[in-house]
Amino acid sequence: MSKKPALAPQAASLGAGSERVGAGKLDADFELIELLFFAYRDFVGEPDRLLAVHGFGRAHHRVLHFVNRHQGLTVAELLEILEITKQSLARVLKDLINAGFIEQRAGDEDRRQRRLYLTAQGEVLAYALAGMQGQRMARALAEAGAADRPVIKRFLEALIDPERRATALAKA
Amino acid sequence: MSKKPALAPQAASLGAGSERVGAGKLDADFELIELLFFAYRDFVGEPDRLLAVHGFGRAHHRVLHFVNRHQGLTVAELLEILEITKQSLARVLKDLINAGFIEQRAGDEDRRQRRLYLTAQGEVLAYALAGMQGQRMARALAEAGAADRPVIKRFLEALIDPERRATALAKA
DNA sequence: AAAATTACGTCAACGTTATTGACATATTTC
DNA sequence: GAAATATGTCAATAACGTTGACGTAATTTT
Question: Chains A, B: CB contacts under 8 A, how many?
């Protein structure tokens, strides 16, 4: 029950009732959709090149990032953030542990848990990666207008599925 | 009742810009960095589910999108936008052609070229996908403040590598 | 204390998207 | 006619993800 300015592709036969298509053809904001695609590609592309030096990929980056942000988190918590399976996590986590970027320590209260921490080496890499994205983000914020950070924040939050929004923010 | 161990052990969440930083480590805006990660994940996740119905993936989406936006483009042009190899493109393009979503026609001037067009069926799918992302984008824009579209646009543009920016905009 | 559950690890098979390298086939241009 | 161009294709490989099944240690329940 929201009004949607229809946008006809080339719709030859529009005569009949409600020949709707898929999720509805609203006037999709192609410009911003594409901008987001290109923006994200470059946003992760730069760190990718540094990661490749160590033989790592994007998945390793995500693990490094969230372990850095929440040192001592459990494997279960990390899986919940990343929304991947434990088998997927296992491979990259093993790489990072073997290479000495992350270490595990059994939980104090619950010794089944493997809490994750960055090593000194891991912090170096995590900060280097964060630096790249941080600088890019800072530049973007400056060009948008530094005072508009709240606008950007609301925009990005609203892009997230409502159910997940609270979770994402809590982690952030 | 399950005893839920406290999340985010050490990381006290802090507001906008200022993280404690050692000498040399810059002040990465972790909040926006993560928000962009979660936002993009959900932004592409919803279309993914529709694509899966047809046995397609994200790569097919990108091809559908850009062929829709630039009907009649050549394979070379598409490769330039996507920045992938022709072998990578070949597989998804073949899928889309075989399934009747995209068709090729030899160029008028240069008959070596295979210009790409959406079929009627292809347009249906492309618009359904665009509708999903368009609605999400519209919602995000509304929550950010519709008047702030220029801010968002500048922000996203500035996230793109400077060299690529012109190209991305031209295509958009 | 036995039984069940939880937290995690791991082996195996497989799918999607990307890569590099090499080679084939038209078509256009010099 | 030779060279360059636009595209297609075969083959091998890598990164990242999935599902399914099973194992083990630690904790909780009964």
Answer: 242
> What is the enclosing helix (H) or strand (E) of B64?
helix B58-69
Judge whether B101 and B71 are in contact, CB under 8 Å: no
Cα B167 to the center of its chain, rounded Å: 15
All residues at 6 or more sequence positions from B58 whose CB lies less than 8 Å from its CB, including other chains: B44, B47, B48, B51
The per-residue b/e assignment along A98-131, b for 16 or more CB within 10 angstroms, e otherwise, is ebebbeeeeeeeeeebbbbbbeeebbebbbebbb
Q: What is the pLDDT of residues A62-116, one digit of tens each?
A: 999 999 999 999 999 999 999 999 999 999 999 999 999 999 999 999 999 999 9
Task: Check CB contact under 8 Å for A70 and B161.
Answer: no
Q: What is the pLDDT of residue B26?
A: 57
Pair B33, A139: CB distance under 8 Å: no
Residue A60, CB, strand D, below 7 Å: yes
Compute the distance between CA of residue A110 and CA of residue B2 in angstroms, rounded to an integer: 13
What angle, rounded to 10 degrees, do the helices at B149-159 and B162-171 form? 130
Task: Report the alpha-carbon distance of residue A118 to residue A67 in Å, rounded.
Answer: 7
Of B4 and B42, which is predicted with more confidence? B42
Q: From chain A, pick out residues whose CB is under 8 angstroms from the CB of B138.
A: 26, 29
Query: What are the structural domains, with CATH classification, of chain A?
Result: 30-145 (1.10.10.10)
Chain B residues 74-133 within an 8 A CB cutoff of chain A: 83, 120, 123-133
